[in-house]
Structure prediction request, 761 residues.
Amino acid sequence: MASHSESLALREQFDTEAQQKEASTLGMWIFLITEVMFFGGMFLAYTVYRSWYPHVFAVASSSLNVYIGAANTVVLLCSSFTMVMAVRAAQLGKRNAIIWFLILTLVLGGVFLGVKAYEWNEKFVEHHVPGAGFHFEGVPQQGPAQIFFSLYFAMTGLHAMHMVVGVGLLIFLIVETRKGKYSASYMTPVDLIGLYWHFVDIIWIFLFPLLYLIDRHLKT
Amino acid sequence: MITAAEQTRVDYLNESYGIKSWLLTKDHKRIGLLYLATITLFFFLGGAFATLIRVELLTPQGGLVSSETYNKLFTMHGVAMIFFFLIPSIPATLGNFFLPMMIGARDLAFPRINLLSWYLLVIGGLFALFAMLAGGVDTGWTFYTPYSTTYSNSWVIATAVGIFIAGFSSILTGLNFIVTVHRMRAPGMTWFRLPLFVWSNYATALIQVLGTPVLAVTIVLVFCERFFHIGIFDPALGGDPVLFQHLFWFYSHPAVYIMVLPAMGVISELVSVFSRKQVFGYHFVAFSSMAIAVLGFLVWGHHLFVSTQSVYAGMVFSFLSYFVAIPSAIKVFNWTATLYKGSISYATPMLYAFGFVGLFTIGGLTGLFVASLGIDVHVTDTYFVVAHFHYIMVGGTIMAYLGGLHYWWPKMTGRMYPELWARLSALVIFLGFNLTFFPQFILGYLGMPRRYHNYPPEFQVLHVLSTAGASVLAVGYLMPMIYFIWSLRYGKLAPANPWGASGLEWKTPSPPPLHNFDETPVVTQEAYDYSGVIGEEIEVG
Prediction:
């Protein structure tokens, strides 16, 4: 332990920095597994109702704007790329590069949330928000159509909430990096928040086709 | 007499003072004690509700409280006992305190997250308390839809939010334990040298981490359904209330194993120490914990035998439920085999362990009754089911919890409890428990449904027996409460290893120093190595 005494980052319950880093990383992966189970409940509900009402889901899905959704997917993928670059910069100990890549990630995340807000607003205008005023043209069963949009809001809403948390974490990282907390020898938080960011990204990779693309085969 | 050396020795209790040193502590031992105080409060709160239920059931016409109040009483009894006592009970108190010590670590991997998890339990508990004081909740602890989402006029959301927050407490404890067992073991502490208490808490942690998030998302959906009427559980919109039952039991059946697996770990420790023998078939007992954790996730459908579930699904779930009996039976047989030719001591913890084995066996075997499709139709939602799960939860978990508390009390506090009173409490609790719950098997089999506050007069004799037993049980639970507190001041000073036990937690003074060990221990032998001490008398205070 004495040989590491110059490091501020080693907490007293650990013997070595390697042990600490392994513990933190394992902890993060387990946390992400809990997140998979958390989203899993909603994916289960989606699976059940889509298999019960395939036609209503296809028609309701077609009312979503695929182009906006696709563009937003690209934005999010780019943010994952800039996040990877920030982690790489941290590994190399380039503080300025970390900050710039984190800011880029933050901006892309902000764009995604802005576009999402625009899409949600559209739903209010079109009366596609579940509740008393709900109305959806094109299918006789209003109930299942409402369930589709309930799931749409629940799943994208939960995803957006995770994005907001991610944005907060990015701001935290930027502040800490500016203070000089991270270097090539200690960059665990950058690494782990990067994992979280990618996880939230991957959730969207599943949400996009499940919500936006289920009627594609009907049109060809 | 306190010698000068003992007076000056610094341990985790006297290294700092003041309310802040407790509320901001990152020491797993102090956090374990914070949990102990918190869940004891909820135990007596849940016990108070149970008392009112039993008093109400003394007479068939149900005159003491209205049906509505009765619904709230059994709901709040269940909520307090399950989410705020049984789930955190052994892992968050004894596990928190002893898991790091048993593997030779200075603390859990994430001490701050450990403290956070206690605060989450407290905040969740305050939500639930608020709901109880504001008027209560009447859905049953199972919150079945559509009653909970559409019709109930009680404090469903406040209670659900409390459970949601407490769930994250449980998740974080599980996460902390998994990482700690993987990464914090002392040199030489290989996986198969781990005490079985650690194995069972590890298996429990896996369930906490995989199951609890599903409960969390279910609560989110109930919340959305109740506030925004999104239709997912509403048949009027094409939704399915039974989907709620699937999601709920996907967590809540494994949750039964969150409650009982750590108890089994405690029993493995006790049976070994007090018969001076290595646990028979160590590997089988260790793996049976893992098997229970895995199989526990595949049996939730046995709660839906009469809920429109397909009969073929029912057959599969029935079969898998029988399957869980195998690892459970492995444990019971191996504990029994451990006793064989052991040098058995009848110290208090061992009395609790004996109580556990007997009561858990009855609870487990009646579990097979309700896991079989035909019999379950007859006893579904009757007192038979109530008796069955109380034999597991109260006869099993609480017996083991109390046994563990007695066993480790000298280490936690540095004081011995009064042995005679403690043995008496074990006896009173065992008798009171059986008198309370055995008549309920008969009641249920004869057709008395659960959750009713009035009943045909011919059931009264059995109900009176049950209430009489509950009174005895209440006395039994108050006894440890009193003499444990008494012992903090007047108890005999405890030596480092009063039981002659082999675990690492006994190789450090009582109470332990802040970082548990003065030097990181090096492990050179298997757990429960009593080969050198056969025949040695255990000193009983």
